[in-house]
């Protein structure tokens, strides 16, 4: 028997051996549930002395349960793949999903979270990178803590420092480190890195891991080897143009996202540089189009749809005993035609 303190809707569903969605429909008064399932849920709720919290009671009066998902750019192929996983789990649980795009603006992220609180979303999912900004952290916590205390559920993708929330964390740092080792193994010793803004945790983790991997291979990366742009296809294009204008002699360019790598490959092609004959290019994420490029893109593959499914499952199942849960998702280096073995140059 489950202890009666801190009994959640998930506990009731588990005790009754039904889905979370079925337990929710029964306890919210929905009539479209089989009688035997209804009886099991009500009996389990009585047994466990389950009492819906204030937030859940408010939601019971809503026309349809809703989950809010906040990302940086809804048009980003990386997020589009993650969103498929989110929407699949939401559909299985009879939930509507409200998508909000911040366009990498931390103030907009705070504003959207505040709006979702007012809309009484049953859960909030933060699917975009955290910001390396203490003021943003404090403002976000100020919105989410009362929401959590009122019964709302929060789950995030990625490393969010000092935020009490369940999280699904892709192994950005170790994946980039492994990629650096693989590229050094192809003989490359002169690297350039195209980064997004280093105010984004995802960018910091990938850049740090790549630099560590090169250091272990005996290759030093200096600030003169780093070119920063927007965390997008256009940002990669602009950063690669800056690299070309600087006359950088890299034999291999690492872009911290596949979108940036795609922009970089276009800029190199426009400048008459062949990939990989003149310069190798690698990205990170393995968005669906990466393998269809010509040449196909070397990258670190992440289970993007699975990331979405896992974070939504965490959001719906709720945190137990105030302790945040962490699920880590590993990445795997995939060497494709955009990178080639090189001769060492003096």
Layout of helices and strands, plus pairs?
Elements: H1 9-16, H2 20-27, H3 35-48, H4 54-60, E1 66-71, H5 77-92, E2 96-101, H6 106-118, E3 123-126, H7 134-149, E4 153-157, E5 166-170, H8 172-185, E6 191-195, H9 201-216, E7 226-228, H10 233-245, E8 252-255, H11 258-270, E9 280-282, E10 299-301, H12 304-317, E11 326-329, E12 332-334
Helix pairs in contact: 1-2, 1-3, 2-3, 5-12, 6-7, 8-9, 10-11
| β-sheet strand percentage | 5-15%
Helix-strand string = HHHHEHEHEHEEHEHEHEHEEHEE
Broad shape: elongated
Major beta sheet summary: 6 strands, parallel
Number of distinct helices: 12
**How do the strands of the widest beta sheet line up side by side?**
2-1-3-4-5-11
Number of strand elements:
12
User: Which CATH-level-2 architecture of the largest domain?
Assistant: 3-Layer(aba) Sandwich
Q: Structural class given helices, strands, pairing?
A: alpha/beta
Radius of gyration: 23 Å
CATH H-tier superfamily of the largest domain: Response regulator
CATH class (first level) name of the largest domain: Alpha Beta
Low-confidence stretches: 1-5, 54-63
The CATH topology name of the largest domain reads Rossmann fold
Helical residues, percent: 40-55%
Overall tally of domains: 3
Give a structural overview.
With 346 residues, the protein is α/β, with parallel strands linked by helices. It folds into three domains: 9-52, Orthogonal Bundle (434 Repressor (Amino-terminal Domain)), CATH 1.10.260.40; 66-170 and 304-329, 3-Layer(aba) Sandwich (Rossmann fold); 172-302, Response regulator (Rossmann fold), CATH 3.40.50.2300. The protein has twelve helices and twelve strands. The strands form three sheets. It has a six-stranded parallel sheet, sandwiched between helices. InterPro entries: HTH_LacI, LacI/GalR-like_sensor, Lambda_DNA-bd_dom_sf, Peripla_BP_I. GO terms for molecular function: DNA-binding transcription factor activity; transcription cis-regulatory region binding.
């Amino acid at each position: 028997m489950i202890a009666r303190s801190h009994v959640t809707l998930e506990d009731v569903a588990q005790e009754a051996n039904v889905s979370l969605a079925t337990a929710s429909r029964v306890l919210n008064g929905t009539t479209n549930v089989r009688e035997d399932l209804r009886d099991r849920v009500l009996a389990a709720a009585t047994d466990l002395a389950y009492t819906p919290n204030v937030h859940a009671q408010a939601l019971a009066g809503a026309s349809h349960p809703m989950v809010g998902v906040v990302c940086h750019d809804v048009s980003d192929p990386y997020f589009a793949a993650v969103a498929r996983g989110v929407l699949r789990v939401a559909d299985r649980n009879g939930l509507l999903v409200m998508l909000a795009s911040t366009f990498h603006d931390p103030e907009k992220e705070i504003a959207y979270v505040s709006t979702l609180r007012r809309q009484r979303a049953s859960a909030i999912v933060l699917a975009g990178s955290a910001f390396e900004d203490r003021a943003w952290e404090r403002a976000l916590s100020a919105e989410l803590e009362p929401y959590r205390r009122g019964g709302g559920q929060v789950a995030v993708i990625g490393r969010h420092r000092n935020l009490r929330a369940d999280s699904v964390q892709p192994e950005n740092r170790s994946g980039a480190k492994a990629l650096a080792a693989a590229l050094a193994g192809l003989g490359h010793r002169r690297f350039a890195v195209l980064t997004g803004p280093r105010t984004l945790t995802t960018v910091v983790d990938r850049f740090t891991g790549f630099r560590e991997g090169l250091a272990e291979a005996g290759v030093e990366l200096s600030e003169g080897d780093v070119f920063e742009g927007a965390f997008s296809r256009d940002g990669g294009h602009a950063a690669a143009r800056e690299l070309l204008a600087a006359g950088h002699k890299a034999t291999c360019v690492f872009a911290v996202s596949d979108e940036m790598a795609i922009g970089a490959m276009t800029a190199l092609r426009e400048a008459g540089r062949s990939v990989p004959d003149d310069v190798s290019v690698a990205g990170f994420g393995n968005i669906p189009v990466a393998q269809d490029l010509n040449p196909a893109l070397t990258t670190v593959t992440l289970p993007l749809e699975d990331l979405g499914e896992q974070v939504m499952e965490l959001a719906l199942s709720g945190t137990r005993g105030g302790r945040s849960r962490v699920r880590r998702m590993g990445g795997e280096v995939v060497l494709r035609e955009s990178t080639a073995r090189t001769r060492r140059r003096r």
